[in-house]
Design a protein that fits this description.
By secondary structure, the chain is an alpha/beta fold. 35% of the residues lie in helices and 17% in strands. A seven-stranded mixed sheet has the order 3-2-1-4-6-5-7, covered by helices on one side.
Length: 213
C-alpha cells in the first residue's frame, strides 16, 4: 500500500508569489480548489490507501472532513516542506506502508493517466521535476525512507543524486501535467492557456480572465 503526503503551508503563506494579482482570500480559495482537483484524482487510485495533509493551520482541517481516507497531521508551526514530509513519513513507516508518494498542493493538472503509469512501476524511486527542472513535483519512495527529501534546495537534482548514489532503481517521470505547478504569474498564464475542466481553472479564469492571459 502507498501512502500519499501533501504538505500545505499556513493560510497566510499560500501562493505569496501571486499576491500582485490575487489577494489573500483569493489565494486561499485557489489553494483549496487546487486541492479539490488533486484529491478527486488521488481518491480514484487503487494504489493509494491513505492520504496525509500536513499543515500547521488548524483552520484547514475542516475542509478535509468530507474526504475518505484523508488524515490531517497538524504541525506545531510552519517549519518547511522537509519537516512536514518527515512527520508524515514516520507514520508511513509505523503503518508498514510499502511506499510514500509526495506531491505538492499546486499541481491541479495531475490525472488518472499519471497515476496509472506510476502503478506500472512500483519500485525504487520515481521523480517528476518541476517545469524549471529545479523542484520536485512528484516523489515516490519505496520504501518510504529510501532517500531523504531535499525540498526548497534544487530538490530535483538532489533527490536524483541521492537515489543514484544509493544505487536504487530510479526513474524520471516527465509529464506536462505534473511539471506545471501554479506558483508564479507565468504559471497561471500557462495554466489558463490549456483550458481544462478543473475547479481551479474555472476559478482563475473567472476572477482573472483576460487581465492576465
Amino acid at each position: 500500500m502507498i501512502y500519499c503526503i501533501i504538505p500545505l503551508k499556513s493560510k497566510r503563506k499560500v501562493k505569496l508569489r501571486l499576491s500582485s494579482v490575487l489577494n489573500l482570500d483569493e489565494r486561499i480559495k485557489l489553494t483549496l480548489y487546487m486541492l479539490e482537483d488533486i484529491l478527486e484524482v488521488l481518491q480514484s487510485s487503487k494504489i493509494i490507501k491513505k492520504l496525509f495533509i500536513v499543515t500547521p493551520d488548524k483552520d484547514f482541517s475542516e475542509f478535509f472532513k468530507g474526504y475518505k481516507n484523508v488524515e490531517v497531521l497538524k504541525e506545531e508551526r510552519d517549519e518547511g516542506v522537509n519537516l512536514a514530509v518527515r512527520k508524515a513519513n514516520k507514520v508511513c513507516m509505523e503503518d508498514n506502508a510499502i511506499g510514500s508518494l509526495v506531491i505538492p498542493s499546486d499541481i491541479p493538472l495531475i490525472s488518472e493517466k499519471e497515476l496509472k503509469i506510476i502503478e506500472d512501476f512500483l519500485e525504487g524511486v520515481i521523480i517528476s521535476p518541476s517545469l524549471r527542472l529545479d523542484g520536485t513535483n512528484l516523489l515516490l519512495r519505496i520504501p518510504p525512507n529510501s532517500i531523504p527529501t531535499y525540498y526548497d534546495n534544487n530538490s530535483f537534482y538532489n533527490h536524483l543524486n541521492a537515489s543514484l548514489k544509493k544505487k536504487i532503481s530510479t526513474k524520471i517521470f516527465l509529464s506536462r501535467n505534473l511539471c506545471l505547478d501554479i506558483d508564479s504569474i507565468e504559471d497561471v498564464k500557462e495554466f489558463l492557456s490549456i483550458k481544462v475542466d478543473k475547479k481551479s481553472y474555472h476559478y482563475l479564469s473567472r476572477i482573472l480572465g483576460r487581465e492576465i492571459v
